[in-house]
Amino acid sequence: MKAFIVTYQKTLEKRISRLHNVFLLILRLWLGWIFISAGLTKFNYWDSTLFLFEYEYQVPLIPWQLAAYVGTAAEVILPTFVVIGLFTRPMALALFGFNIVAVISYPSIWENGFLDHQLWGLMILVVLLYGAGRWSLDQLMSHPD
Fold first, then answer.
1. pTM of the complete model
2. What is the pLDDT of residues 99-113, one digit of tens each?
3. Cα separation of 123 and 63, whole Å?
4. Is 91 in contact with 81 (CB distance < 8 Å)?
């Protein structure tokens, strides 16, 4: 019986481990879609973005104009690196920090969007802890053969 259980566990682990890279790719693509879409919306409606940063968002430590530019750039650039899997862990760490600043800066988010930001934060942490996986530029550059 013990041999059967050990064999079963090894077979199950092998099959599940095949999904590891697929899972990481899906997380990276999902994060990219979420953040890049939001960043492009800010870019496409720049006057509204400036209004929001001046009157709604309360970004700490930097002027609202700088926050609008830096925030919009971060929302497009950081997840792009995560999606392609280049410098994935440092970019995921920066994106995690960006997500925290977004929650802190927009108090109204607590009412309706806080759970979304928690989910996105967890997704970012998974990528941060496990890396980009096999289908990434990080992996390609670390094994050029």
1. 0.89
2. 999 999 887 777 788
3. 29
4. yes
